[in-house]
Amino acid sequence: MNKNIVLCGVGGQGTVLASKLIAAAAMKKGIPVMSAETIGMAHRGGSVFSHIRLGENLHSPMIAKGTADLVIGFEPGETVRMLPYLKEGGQVIVSSREIMPVTATLSGTDYNGEDMTAYLEKRVENLLVADTEKACTELGFAKVLNILLLGAAIQSGALGLTEEEIQGAVRERLPEKFHELNFRALRYFAGKSFHKE
Amino acid sequence: MHKEFLMGNEAIALGAIAAGVNLVSGYPGTPSSEVLETVAKRRTKDVYVEWSVNEKAALEVAAGAAYTGARSMVTMKQVGLNVASDPLMSLEYVGIKGGMVVLVADDPGPISSQTEQDTRHFATFSKLPCFDPTSAQEAYEMVQEAFEYSEKYGTPVFLRPTTRVCHGYASIDVKDTEEYTVHTAEGFVKDSNRWVIFPRLSYQNHIKIEERNVKLAEAFSVYPKNKIYLADEKNAALKKGIAASGISFTYALETLEEMGMTRLFKVATPHPFPEKLALEFLDGLDEVLCIEELDPVLERELTYLCGKYHLPVKIYGKLTSHVANAGENTRDSVHKNITEFLAESKQADAVEQIDLPAPALPIRPPVLCAGCPHRASFYAVKAAMKGRKTIFCGDIGCYTLGNAMPLDMVDTCLCMGAGLGIAQGVGHMEPDTTCFAFVGDSTFFASAITGVVNAVYNQAEMTLVVLDNSTTAMTGHQPHPGTGKTMMGDVVQKINIEAVLCGIGLKTVETVDPLDYKAAVDCVKRVADEPGVKAIIFKSPCIAVSKPEHSMCVASEKCINCKKCICELGCPALVIQDGKVSIEASLCTGCTLCAQLCPTGAIQKREPVKCMPGKEVKTEPADTVDGVQNNCTGGCSHE
């Protein structure tokens, strides 16, 4: 299995942890992994991304445009930004909730996630829009966006990893008191039809 | 051997530990910081590790260890090497006994640096051998080999990864603890003819260094990590080749594996250049494209060889505008460079044919975090100095972000510690300007103290503002002399900034909490009007390492929607929702600065509320993994 995955969002949303969980789950299956992510000054409130590559004969942790099998977008606008990496027929998972940049608040510019989601719906054949706001409310916990989206990616089938495999990675990497909640978040989209706004 | 999923920097740290390193010193700087942090985390019990006060101190500490025969490593980013260059240039003439690796991380782009300088040039300049890894796995092996070469040839050596190697992750093969080399130092042996640099010794050693580097160039020609990849059958007759190094090599290799292999030269040791192997690569070729980041080092070396040996080979790259001369290469840019080179014609930039153009994307420049005490400090100075002719000289750290609108409080920024000198220079030329220099606590210790001494001695008129958040925030919260913690895990005496300033002779040094708006403004007004050199210490911990107590909310019946809070502070937690000012509870840390500014008292402490009817939101602390904040953006309000 060779797979290119892009995770994108805004600094602080938990993309790094999500990419580590994918990597840990893949390594457990003996699949070689490479990844690259934004670290440093760009991190605070800025656009961030992770490239993850699974499979044999990889040399570079960075992927070429038009070659991502899966884009997991933590924010609609950031997902549009990373769309050039998606390959034809690739899968996109996007969280419907937008994050206002400080610049938009200051200048009164109108940025809204719905325009971005609407654009994605027109451009992307295989799109799943995850209503993470509703999910967080139903779960009663706010800090599980990354796990929710991983769950949605599992449901789409494009991740190539199972719920059990990601669960194993959660067990290894997170403190025990968070396990149950994260497992619920991981399962949240199972059997649910994705809400389209 | 076993497999681990490691960042390039972690791989370098584990490689050094496996090579039996005895001492590691350094100063934080992106993209190098994780090397030393990983050494501290994974070291065997007899490895000594420290964050030094700056790169010069770090390099001297590592040199001292190498004088005893110990293996040592010093870590820094590329601009840090400028600070350490004084001892380094001389150290090469003296030499070392134990292996010494100088880890300098370069930053093409630049992604988080002031310059795009190339440490490979520094290698030529200082005459040090240089290793340039292409991947995390290679960096792991290379650091171990670097120690061997260093000891064998009696010279410190550079290991010079770039950002994408430092911060790229890979599942790599690493040694088990039982496989680690144990290196025991012989001890320092007195010999003033060896360890004391004098003009005559420098002359004699200069001759030896030049002879050694000729030998090293030969040794590097058979160093397995310098390698020629042969063209495949289809391209066997093609008289074109590609030379590449660093992460760009991996982009080139993947591109060629897709398109068909041409002859490819991987350069792992840019200095001394592996001349013999390079000649073998050039043999029979008509044209060569050099793909590298930062400066055209390979390109100049190959061009030089073609001149030296009268080879009819055209060398292309940055100097010939075939490759971009600034910024980082990408998988896509390298693909384009190679395609054009092999097709013999320049392709027009492919315009992406998209029927549906994307809507305008939000711009997200890095900003000070919600609740950051620096915002309050800058705002207090701004408010206190309103209407006066001022200059605000900034420095390197999170607080450089004070330049963004609406604060707009950084008029200059050059390099670490420079704000002090710049403020003095401006003040000497423009006595009617009220001059401020802002410096963080870690930067204060690293490089500002001499600037203060200079100001006092030379009768400058200026106000030093120390933004003391009790950590080195920008690079990932490393301890420093003011924090009282070391990387060995010891709790030691804190060095008191106020006492240092008083010791230098400042008559006015005031410490104030920047989050107490009125007290902070009064303090700035008072101190700025004192004569000579005086200082304000704004003391409040970084919010990324302190726990928020509560968050704030807007009482909509009191809010007149004047937007003063938003327009004056630019805090990411202050947003407009449905046309009204609102506070993003998941970001707010309850610093209360906006509440203190609000003309109608509409911003109040948020009472414990329920996120949604019937759903009480838990108040677990922020889930942090590997230092990365995992903030909610799910839209729930939680206290």
Q: For the CA atoms, what is the radius of gyration of chain A?
A: 16 Å
What's the CATH architecture of chain A? 3-Layer(aba) Sandwich
CATH superfamily of the largest domain in chain B: Thiamin diphosphate (ThDP)-binding fold, Pyr/PP domains
Strand elements of chain A, count: 6
State the helix count of chain B: 20
Percent helix range of chain B? 25-40%
SS class of chain B: alpha/beta
Question: What would the principal axes of the Cα set say about the shape of chain A?
Answer: globular
C-alpha termini separation of chain A: 33 Å
Greatest interface and its participating residue counts: A-B, 74 and 74 residues
Query: What name goes with the CATH superfamily of chain A?
Result: Pyruvate-ferredoxin oxidoreductase, PFOR, domain III
Parts with pLDDT < 50 across at least 5 consecutive residues of chain B: 609-639
Tell me the fraction of residues in β-strands of chain A, as a range.
15-25%
Number of strands of chain B: 24
Find the CATH topology of the largest domain in chain B: Rossmann fold
CATH topology term of chain A: Pyruvate-ferredoxin Oxidoreductase, domain 3
Question: Which spans of chain A have pLDDT < 50 for at least 5 consecutive residues?
Answer: none
Shape of chain B: globular
